[in-house]
């Protein structure tokens, strides 16, 4: 499977403009608006808010779109029902950030039979890739590898007790970040004491971490959080237990949203791998190209980077989210 790698969001935006012939602003093409149904996961995290903002800005009327937006509150059935409703409305195209990987074959087949192209953004699905026109997002597995490599380099052969705050059960980022991290720490002295979902939310991350602290106390050396919001919840629990996050218990996380980066600069998180949420321009470009009958890459990856506290301090003021 060919895959296109895009470096940084500026390059991604430029590519999106080029793909849509929108360079220099405006929607290009005739005056009629393109009606797009967008099925978002919900509003579970700071990352999701930034992603929604990016998508709404890109699928604007001035860019030639009429956006029908649905946020499914992280409920899989509600998200599938939203896609069905877009099909019944006869939208021109559907964009989905699928909450989980499985269970999409039927409704994607219905969209295909209705002649409505589907673009996936952010998360992926296990359904056959002839059921969607393209996917744009991040390499979650590599994000897990990057986080695991930091842990392996930092703790290496020192016996280390790890607990994991997993993302939404069944979601591509949770599955892939777990896999990548496990591969990267293989052969080290890092032992996983426990691993549980915190649903990518700060509240659940705190609750799960409270449980880990009750069960394992200060024998915990390291937390791997699949996103910053759960890492921030873990910080709340660690501090409530009278321990020092980033020192007594180190934390490695993924996303690099503003609040996560500030905690990193404060030394409460030790390392963050970025997962860029600003996918709106790319998704909008793909919709226009697919509707124009152009050939598009099936998978478009936006490159990620990582940050130490010092690196975060250098860039915090210029970051877009
Ligand atoms: C990753 C995205 C994940 C983020 C979380 O691309 O799907 O969902 O890592 C968000 O913060 O809730």
UniProtKB/TrEMBL annotation:
Principal place of residence: other
Subcellular location: Cell envelope
Coiled coil spans: none
A GO CC term assigned to this protein in UniProt: cell envelope
Keyword terms, alphabetized: Signal
Gene3D superfamilies per the UniProt record, alphabetical: 3.40.50.2300
Signal peptide positions (record): 1-23
Gene Ontology terms, MF aspect: carbohydrate binding
InterPro entries, A to Z: Peripla_BP_I, SBP_2_dom
One Pfam family it belongs to: Peripla_BP_4
Domain Periplasmic binding protein span(s) in chain numbering: 37-294
UniProt xrefs under PROSITE patterns: PROKAR_LIPOPROTEIN
SUPFAM superfamilies the UniProt entry points to: Periplasmic binding protein-like I
PANTHER family attached to this UniProt entry: D-ALLOSE-BINDING PERIPLASMIC PROTEIN-RELATED, GALACTOFURANOSE-BINDING PROTEIN YTFQ
Family classification: Belongs to the bacterial solute-binding protein 2 family.
Protein name as catalogued: LacI family transcriptional regulator
